[in-house]
Write a structure and sequence with these properties.
This protein is mainly alpha-helical. The chain is built from three helices and two strands; from the N terminus they run ααββα. The protein has a two-stranded antiparallel sheet with strand order 1-2. Helix 1 crosses helix 2, helix 1 packs antiparallel against helix 3 and helix 2 crosses helix 3.
Amino acid sequence: MNAFIYSIVQLLHTVINVYIWIVIIAALLSFVRPDPSNPIVQFIYRITEPVYRVIRQKMPFLIVGGIDLSPIVIILGLQFIDTLMMRALLG
């Protein structure tokens, strides 16, 4: 396999895994209500809220009893894409 393609696939794999962890951190932050003026909290919300918004618009039934399940859908979707990409391109 071409080393360039392998490098790109590995980079995408890493980016997907980092984003999954960011989604997990954002979900955990929603339980503790941190200071919204904190730059780290602002960064996490800025990179997760657009994806949350799309999922919430497409699947409004994911909010059950006041609990938002969109992070679970995002994580499962990212893991599906990651596994599909790794299997298809790397065999």
